[in-house]
Specification:
Elements: H1 2-15, H2 22-39, E1 43-53, E2 58-68, E3 74-83, H3 85-102, H4 105-111, E4 118-128, E5 131-140, E6 148-155, E7 161-168, E8 176-188, E9 191-203, E10 207-221, E11 227-229
Antiparallel strand pairs: 1-2, 1-10, 2-3, 4-5, 5-6, 6-7, 7-8, 8-9, 9-10, 10-11
Helix pairs in contact: 1-2
Length: 241
């Protein structure tokens, strides 16, 4: 039933004239996302966090193994780290802990990009590598540091978010003047998964902090719960945050 629903959604997207209305796009997005979540079994992956502040000449790097279960909840294990101990302890590890908390079931439901949590406005269309995209403005209905005010790019065939850009709906700290985030997803096999995140925080005292996250070495869980390579999974596209 679920594969059939996904096939119908993709067929509709392929044959439908562009552009659809914002409501139609979001309806397709929610339907496809619900169907993907129903078959998503989780993954194991690696991440490389980098931090740089040129003003105070601080750098740090941390490589982490991430395990995401079928609910989207994540656990993290540090594999290697180098650079400023202060940055690793007070910035990178706090980022990881914040994501772990946000991935828990209650928080995840409250921050999903769905009409319950966001207002949407169609801005236009775009194209990346020959794939047509819808561009929508998103405005959170509540102020939450895990929610983004900005734009999303939605693949017109798969109705998966391929790019998210904006700022947190709630400033994470008094000491931060502004934060700008760019989060990019890519199609790996038949799945849409995060591949890169860049954020720039302008601090009141210490200047500009640049943080990058590289995602790699995905092993996707099969229906039996065991990890396997991306090419070995025959499921529908999944966009996982």
């Amino acid at each position: 039933m679920i594969p059939l629903l996904l096939a119908m959604i993709q067929e509709t997207a392929t044959s439908a004239p562009m552009p659809l209305t914002a409501t139609e796009i979001v309806d397709h997005l929610v339907q496809a996302d619900n169907a993907r979540m129903a078959v998503f079994s989780g993954y194991t992956a690696m991440r490389r966090y980098t931090f740089e502040n040129k003003k105070v000449k601080k750098k740090a790097e941390m490589t982490v193994r991430v395990v995401c279960d079928h609910t989207g909840a994540k656990t993290f294990e540090v594999v290697s780290e180098s650079g400023s101990g202060f940055v690793r302890t007070h910035i990178i590890r706090r980022m990881i802990e914040a994501e772990r908390e946000a991935s828990e079931a209650g928080e995840r439901k409250q921050t999903r990009i769905i009409p319950d949590n966001y207002d949407f406005r169609l801005l236009g269309t775009d194209e990346t590598e020959g794939r047509p995209l819808y561009v929508l403005e998103i405005r959170p209905k509540t102020k939450n540091q895990f929610m983004i005010r900005g734009r999303i790019w939605v693949d017109a065939a798969d109705f998966a978010i391929t790019r998210l850009e904006g700022s947190p709906a709630k400033n994470p700290s008094f000491w931060i003047r502004s934060v700008h985030v760019i989060h990019r997803y890519d199609r790996i096999g038949q799945f849409w998964l995060p591949v890169a995140n860049k954020s720039r925080a302008e601090a009141r005292i210490f200047g500009t902090n640049d943080v990058g996250i590289e995602y790699f070495d995905y092993l996707l869980n099969g229906l039996d719960g065991k990890a396997g390579p991306v090419s070995g999974i025959d499921l529908a596209n999944v966009t996982v945050h």
